[in-house]
Amino acid sequence: MGTGSDSNGWNRARGLAVKTLLLIGGALLIKRLRKSTTRWDHAHFVAKSLTGEKHSKEQASRDPDNYFNIRMLTCPAAELVDGSKVLYFEQAFWRSPQKPFRQRFFMVKPCPKELKCDVELSTYAIRDMEEYKNFCDRPKDQRPQPEEVIGDIAEHLTTIHLKRCPRGKRCLYEGSTPPDGFPNSWNGATCCTSELAVMKNNEIHTWDRGYDDDGNQVWGQKEGPYEFKPAPTSSFNDMFSPLNFPPPPSMERRIEGSFVLQE
To answer: Which end of the chain is more exposed for a tag (fewer CB within 10 A), N or C?
Structure first.
């Protein structure tokens, strides 16, 4: 009788111990899952989404009167001591990628804790833009090195605060500059605003606009953002598409109104 009682007691104790371990393990798993996405994870995801070759060919095909086939190329350039990622960014007409008309540094990091956002994306001018042309297309040993990149970060231009998109939207992150924008003097503007969205299909949507003192838009798209999709494998036919040739001189002012060109 005593042996059976001891055995039952041992089985109950063992069952209780297993249940306890399962409860503890489950609690630890839930805790780990809740902590799995950190502030830096969001920043790294946005930086990775921005990276690569993208273009606006489909949008230019749908609406050639308002959009051009632009190549957007972004790649890692340096990392700061606080973990912030510095990316090199340039835009050019798809047919002439060796002649970028816009060059910038992106700095990507988590939003300050006091702000209700996830990722802070800032743009900076480059001290010597000529030295950085086609930076991403060059072998790494033929580019300015990270310590040089950090030294070449010049004037701060804009900052966008990105938030995770609500469930059901096509985007993953979206954000904009503050309502008052940032100072800008191109083409009669006194300020500029920027909007950016990271989409689920790895698209990047950007919308930059400039305004004068009276609130009139003096440069930038009026119809909506540029939609940059990941570039497909190049083909011979794509190279000779009418969308890829530089526009005629009569359209140059309209291009300048769509983008802030190098100053």
So the answer is: N
